[in-house]
Design a protein that fits this description.
Number of domains: 2
Largest sheet: 8 strands, mixed
Strand order of the largest sheet: 1-4-6-5-9-10-11-12
Order of helices and strands: EEEEEHEEEHEHEHHHHHHEHEHH
Subunit structure: Homodimer.
CATH class of the largest domain: Alpha Beta
Strand content: 15-25%
Pathway: Amino-acid biosynthesis; L-methionine biosynthesis via de novo pathway; O-acetyl-L-homoserine from L-homoserine: step 1/1
EC number: 2.3.1.31
Oligomer: single chain
Radius of gyration: 20 Å
CATH topology of the largest domain: Rossmann fold
Helix content: 25-40%
Main location: cytoplasm
Shape: globular
CATH superfamily of the largest domain: Alpha/Beta hydrolase fold, catalytic domain
CATH architecture of the largest domain: 3-Layer(aba) Sandwich
Number of strands: 12
Keywords: Acyltransferase, Amino-acid biosynthesis, Cytoplasm, Methionine biosynthesis, Transferase
């Protein structure tokens, strides 16, 4: 079971609104040393949780991956998510009612600040490796900009310095699907369930690509209905709706759209120049959602950085699936 950190103070958000308090569910593996410095912090993506050993299986491997005898690993369920952290499903302490759509909007920058507050409570003085893919990479990047002296090494996978117009359009299309479900406006846990299923099906088209479907969802030659690709989309939508809440998805996609390290920092280039951590940027050659041009930009503008492009048929999801290759790349650049 995840632990829960409670911050019993008003937390001002980037947009000027305030959360009266917040909680973050988090999980740790290994043991923190006396200096509070043997830390690997993993930032999760959109619908993941505080258990990277579940959604990144194989990453903890003494021989090729992360050695839990050496490191204290932390992963926190982010603000707005539905796995124990403060979210639209939480009770507003000022009204004693479920927040619902009265939950304030928040940014990636806000998420990074909450993670840093948690790290201070845990007695962490520095983070040896800060790692994140996709939306997790956005959080890690922001944190490394906000606290450049605290983050020693940074691993950014399949992510960007600013969410693209393409990515925002995809997210808005998903939100439109959620909003078209009239139950979305209710305040129960199944609100927007069917809309969330449609949103997930839309998202999958950006997580994978043409070749992925062509190789995994092939029908019999004479099929006229009940296509494998159709059933796959429905299955994935239903699978997510059984474990995730539509309002959390809606808010988190909004936070993802807010990602722009250059906002109020003159430019993305100048913001990235603030990062002091030795950085490894990993891209997926077939990624449609975060194309490799975005990772090349990161590597070009983070001073102490290296770039690795992984060849995968799984598109954006390659950052979750190609674990063995990712471990090899990590070992190539770092002494984990």
């Amino acid at each position: 079971m995840p632990k829960v950190f409670s911050y019993q103070h008003p937390f001002e958000l980037e947009n000027g609104q305030t959360l009266p308090e917040f909680e973050l569910a988090y999980n740790t593996l290994g043991k923190l040393n006396a200096e509070g410095s043997n830390v690997i912090w993993i930032c999760h993506a959109l619908t993941a949780n505080a258990h990277p050993e579940e959604w990144w299986p194989g990453i903890f491997d003494k021989k090729n991956g992360i050695d839990l005898d050496k490191y204290f690993v932390v992963c926190a369920n982010i603000l707005g998510s539905c796995y124990g952290s403060t979210s639209p499903q939480s009770i507003n302490p000022e009204t004693n009612e479920v927040y619902g759509l009265d939950f304030p909007k928040f940014s990636i920058r806000d998420i990074a600040k909450t993670l840093d507050i948690l790290s201070e409570d845990l007695g962490i003085s520095e983070i040896q490796y800060l790692m994140g893919g996709s939306m997790g990479g956005m959080q890690a990047m922001e944190w490394a900009i906000q606290k450049p002296d605290k983050i020693k090494k940074l691993v950014l996978l399949a992510t960007s310095p600013k969410h693209s117009s393409w990515g925002i359009a995809l997210n808005e299309t998903q939100r439109m699907a959620i909003e078209s479900d009239p139950t979305f406006y209710n305040n129960d846990k199944i609100a927007g369930k069917k809309g969330l299923e449609a949103a997930r099906a839309i998202a999958l088209l950006s997580y994978r690509n043409y070749n992925t479907y062509q190789s995994t969802q092939i029908d019999e030659e004479n099929a006229v209905d009940d296509f494998r690709a159709s059933s796959y989309q429905k299955y994935q939508g239903e699978k997510l709706s059984k474990r995730f809440y539509a309002k959390s998805y809606w808010y988190l996609s909004k936070a993802m759209d807010s990602h722009n390290v250059g906002r109020n920092r003159n430019s993305c280039e100048k913001a990235l120049a603030k990062i002091k951590a030795k950085t490894l940027v990993i891209g997926i050659q077939s990624d449609l959602l975060f194309p490799v041009e975005e990772q090349k930009f990161l590597a070009e503008h983070i001073s102490d950085s290296a770039l690795e492009i992984i060849d995968s048929s799984y598109g954006h999801d390659g950052f979750l699936i190609e674990v063995e290759t990712i471990k090899l790349v990590l070992r190539k650049h770092f002494k984990l």
